[in-house]
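yo

u said u wanted the structure for the complex thing, so here. seqs first:
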Amino acid sequence: MDLSIIVAQAEIAETAGRAIGLGLGTGLAALGTGIGLGIIFGKTIEAVSRQPELRSEIQSIQWLGFALTEATVFYGFIAGLIAFFV
Amino acid sequence: MRRMTYLLGAAIVALLAPSTALASGDAALNPSDEFALPPWVEINIGGLDLSINKAVFYILLATALTIFITIWIANRMAARPTGKAQVIMESAYSLMRNNITGGNLDGKMAAKWFPFIATLFLFIWFSNMIGYLPLPTNTMHTVDVFGLEIPAFGLYAATANISVPLILAVVVWISYHVEGIRHHGFIGYIRSWVPAGVEGFMVGPILVIEALSHFVRLLSLSLRLFANILAGHLLLLFMAGGLVILLGMGLAGSLIIGVATGALGVAFFLFEIGLVATLQAFIFATLTAIYLGGAVADEH
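structre next:
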């Protein structure tokens, strides 16, 4: 086989690997974040149904937890972008 | 309420307009163009690039809005408020005063740091919100309107550029360390990182981990804001036509995908302005207050 074909193949494989890394990394990060968000909102519903008088207090903590958890998907996304472009 | 609906409708139509403008021309779409920063006014001082570009314009706009809107509302304060501006500002004030600052800092510290935290909250909020208004700032593509070359509409925000959240995070990071050292003394502050109950040979490794976690705070505080806004803008860009152009599936395919992603784009737009913009400003200000409170707390 001609050597240039192998080199070209390797270049395609590198680009493809980067794309797979970006997609898979962000997707897996979204998986974990989704589980985390489900736990947060589920626990909030549980807590509010147990003690409805604490609703506003629980909700403010819930949004804090939501924002902190939701940000983790973007860490995966940024890491993917670094893998893709750098 | 009706006026708000019209404004929102106009904003959504304007949001979807860039895609049609781009699609009609023969210019190839490059998604990273949306975040390119061509200099508008070139300023070079000793090799330092201080050019005025899109990002600088957005910072100045957010700063001006933060200052002038708050001063304007403060000057129109009345015991019997007319209009909604004062009511909205008062509820924002009570959120910043009671929830963000008062909930995490005790009396004296809260009074001392409230102006800083409130300014952070308002600046980030205004910066995020103008990021979702399509403004004619995309000088790389121009639209011909009756012979007049005006820049294409684009979405951008000062907070979608890593340098702005990073410098805000650095300011917060330095100020909470300074406050901690002022309260405990340098040795006492470092010692306060170690949780109560840790003794003997375990103090060293715990101290290293805690020191690392302080640097991770710097990273997470800036990345959270930056990545949220950046990802929001990218999502809107792809939904409002970017995906259709990139896929290039002919007329019928483009129409089907365009309608589907356009509807999704409107939903994401509402989600971004309704929740993400405010929540990110809230979380940044809240974490600042938590870090400041943690630095002066007696027990770790």
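Chain B is about 70% helix and 5% strand. Helices of chain B lie at 2-24, 54-75, 85-101, 107-130, 163-184, 186-192, 203-247, 250-296.
cya
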